[in-house]
């Protein structure tokens, strides 16, 4: 039996906004945003060696029943993939897209594993506007 993964979630809007300025990787079913905490912790006491996750499912995706189903599917995928691919000390936000509801669950997990790998392989580069560039084409300002 595989060890269980404890899913700690982001609680405050300020935590979600801070992660928004980090690395991003988009798939058909979701967008993964990642950012290291680097000593920054929310007012709550959270161990620095644990990855935390936030989930965003907008009203554009449908009724509360549909949004909750999407969120449950994404949380289950994170529990399956994060133990091996999420990094300790990182905060992640997963922004759902419409295909997340009907996508084959194994594909959702594979997309999440790929997103973790790709997001961690990016090098953040400042664009001078508080955002991080995804490419190395633009010079740092």
Task: Report what the structure shows.
It is a single chain. This protein is of the alpha/beta class and 141 residues long. It is 33% helix and 21% strand. It has three helices and seven strands. The chain has helices spanning 13-20, 64-85, 105-121; strands spanning 8-9, 23-26, 30-36, 52-56, 90-96, 125-126, 132-133. The protein has a five-stranded mixed beta sheet with strand order 1-4-5-3-2, with helices on both faces. Strands 6-7 form a two-stranded antiparallel sheet. Helix 2 (64-85) crosses helix 3. The protein is globular. The termini are far apart.
Determine Rg (CA atoms, Å): 15 Å
The helix-strand sequence is EHEEEHEHEE
CA-CA gap between termini: 50 Å
State which percent range the strand residues make up: 15-25%
Indicate the mean pLDDT: 82
How many beta-strand runs?
7
Helical content class: 25-40%
- Gross morphology: globular
User: Helical region count?
Assistant: 3
Q: What does the largest sheet look like?
A: 5 strands, mixed
